[in-house]
Design brief:
Oligomer: single chain
Mean pLDDT: 85
Distance between the termini: 67 Å
Radius of gyration: 31 Å
Helix content: 55-70%
Low-confidence stretches: 1-28
Strand content: under 5%
Structural class: mainly alpha
Shape: elongated
Largest sheet: 6 strands, mixed
Number of strands: 8
Number of helices: 26
Number of domains: 2
């Protein structure tokens, strides 16, 4: 592991932060490094990151094992296959995935989809269940890779900062509520935050709490929250080891009924081709499409949130490829469909993870445990794991920046709240979709009713400005300068038409030229082009010329393509407003002295 050349040092910021400046990534990650971002990080690895990655990997292992096994059972698959679906995907993503600390593996949001498809098809045959799950993972991976190669990662651009905050806050609440029963020592079934909360409260009120379990879990949680602020102290690892030792020494699993992980099944996954029936491919492909969309939505939001926090840049198309390769590796090594983990990733982050080596460490340790020490974690209490996940969920919550957003742009704050409520009540994917729909509606509304202004010349100020902002601005007799601050399209074409006529009628002098300051107009569609033709006819009947200034060449090309080149010749277009004014004064014979000419 080299430390890199002097240029490499220039490209990265501090060794402690592990950040990479975005231009450096864009400049260097070309060729083979573009497709293997994990090897790019290894090529520039710094030895003082090693301790953080190893410690974070060890801490992460303590969470990966029980969570992977639990999600496997939830998906209708034997628990051991949850570990198989953890080892190889972590290794594959470490090479092909662009995010430095993202943790992928079995996920709760996918378990229900997997079970709904493979359990009926398997008809109670365990071997067939595993084969169907493997083929489903392979199909999911292929779809993700094809989407990445087709550069469909742009869809993540719809996920603005308020949406990401709302998503992460919703996920944090979902994870926290889901772990509370484990912290209290009982189980509570429920679909969604509201049902889980109600089940938890009912369990507490009916006396299901195991007070020894709660004391052990609460002590673990408090310890983590107090000491996690010391970055170089492995608070999570110490807390988990301490809880395990206490449980073993006092035999709490037997004496007090504290639930523990138990002895791990032994053995490593082997390469297997998951053969399925031809008639099974249809239902599996439909499920694979759904899982690909769900897993990429989860992964992209989590990846972008982490990237924004660390200052790194993550290519969303490569993210899809990394996720796809990880799913394929799971499918061929007796695993099932996987995604990013919103609960395990913060564990790695809070434990000081710097690079993909954390995931590699977790995968290797799980493999070693399966081979050499399947009983090592048998006394690990599940309440301690719940404490780890809850502490991580608390770290996901964003409040400070939301306060700033509320002060400067309230509708984006409420968009974040809508996303938060959507994720918490409806689930992650419906919540994101709801927030994106609201954001798109807001965008259309802004374009539908955009800002516009009549411009004038204010003494002592360069350029032409809104006369409502500069009441003393002077207007040139017979000339109306009108700025439209949006694309011209079907939703605002009539509004534009109406406001032009209003500006003409409001002019203090008879209008000869009506000039559209078109620099903000980035596009024109067919409806708007037809409207311009009608508007031009109306203005010509009133002996007014319709002129455009500062219109972009691509927009002019569209007008020509729409057949308006005969109507609007080159003499209707001017590069600047100043040239329009000079041409108008020269053709009209009007005397008008600019304040700059006076000086």
């Amino acid at each position: 592991m080299g430390t890199g050349t002097s240029s490499d040092t220039h490209q990265e910021t501090s060794a402690d932060s592990g950040r990479i400046i975005r231009p450096a990534i864009l400049a260097e990650q070309t060729g083979i490094w573009k497709w293997l971002p994990g090897l790019y990080v290894l090529r520039h690895y710094r030895i003082n990151w090693l301790r953080n990655d190893l410690v974070a990997g060890l801490v992460l292992t303590a969470v990966l094992v029980p969570v992977g096994m639990g999600y496997a059972e939830a998906a209708g698959i034997p628990a051991i296959y949850g570990l198989y679906a953890t080892i190889l995907p972590l290794l594959a993503y470490a090479v092909f995935g662009p995010s430095r600390i993202l943790v992928i593996g079995p996920d709760s949001s996918l378990a229900a989809i997997i079970a709904a498809v493979i359990v009926p098809l398997a008809a109670g045959d365990p071997a067939r269940t595993v084969a169907l799950a493997g083929m489903l993972a392979i199909l999911t991976g292929i779809l993700c890779i094809l989407a990445g190669l087709a550069r469909l990662g742009f869809i993540t651009e719809l996920l603005s900062k308020p949406i990401r905050y709302g998503y992460m806050n919703g996920i944090a609440l979902t994870v926290l509520v889901g772990q509370l029963p484990k912290l209290f020592g009982f189980s509570a079934e429920g679909n969604g935050v509201l049902a889980q909360t109600a089940a938890f409260i009912q369990g507490v009120l009916t006396g299901m709490t195991n007070w020894v379990t709660l004391a052990l879990g609460a002590a673990t949680l408090i310890f983590i929250l107090i000491f996690k602020r010391f970055k170089r102290f492995p608070a999570v690892l110490v807390a988990v080891v301490g809880a395990t030792v206490v449980t073993a020494v006092f035999n709490l699993s037997t004496q007090a009924g504290v639930a523990v992980v138990g002895e791990l099944p032994q053995g490593l996954p082997s390469f297997t081709i998951p053969w399925v029936r031809l008639e099974d491919l249809g239902p599996l492909l439909v499920a694979a499409i759904t899982i690909a969309v769900v897993s990429f939505a989860d992964t992209s939001v989590l990846s972008r949130s982490l990237a924004a926090k660390s200052g790194a840049y993550v290519n969303p198309n490569q993210e899809m490829i990394g996720l796809g390769v990880a799913n394929i590796s799971a499918g061929f090594f007796q695993g099932f469909s996987i995604s990013a983990s919103a609960s395990r990733t913060p564990v790695a982050e809070s434990s000081g993870s710097k690079t993909q080596l954390t995931g590699v460490t977790g995968a290797v340790v799980i493999a070693l445990l399966l081979v050499f020490a399947p009983s090592l974690l048998k006394n690990l209490p599940t309440t301690a794991l719940a404490a780890v996940v809850i502490a991580s969920a608390i770290g996901l919550i964003e409040i400070h920046d939301l306060r700033r957003i509320y002060r400067i742009q309230q509708w984006e704050f409420w968009l974040s709240i809508a996303c938060f409520l959507g994720v918490a009540i409806l689930g992650p994917i419906p919540g994101i979709l709801l927030a994106i729909i609201i954001a798109l509606l807001e965008f259309v509304w802004d374009g539908w009713r955009p800002h516009y202004a009549v411009l004038g010349r204010a003494d002592g100020v360069k350029g032409y400005h809104d006369i409502t902002r500069y009441p003393d601005a002077r207007r040139i007799p017979g000339l109306v300068l009108f700025r439209w601050d949006a694309p011209l399209f079907f939703a605002n074409a009539e509004q534009f038409h109406e406001q032009v006529l209003i500006a003409v009628n409001a002019s203090p002098t008879p209008v000869r030229w009506f000039v559209v300051a078109a620099e903000p107009v980035t596009s024109v569609d067919v409806t708007a082009a037809d409207m311009l033709a009608e508007l031009d006819d109306e203005l010509r009947n009133a002996e007014i010329q319709l002129i455009f200034a500062e219109m972009k060449d691509p927009v002019k090309d569209k007008l020509k393509r729409f057949g308006l080149s005969d109507r609007f010749g080159d003499d209707h277009f001017f590069p600047t407003i100043g040239q329009v004014v000079s041409a108008y004064l020269g053709s009209s014979g009007i005397t008008w002295v600019d304040w700059e000419d006076k000086t």
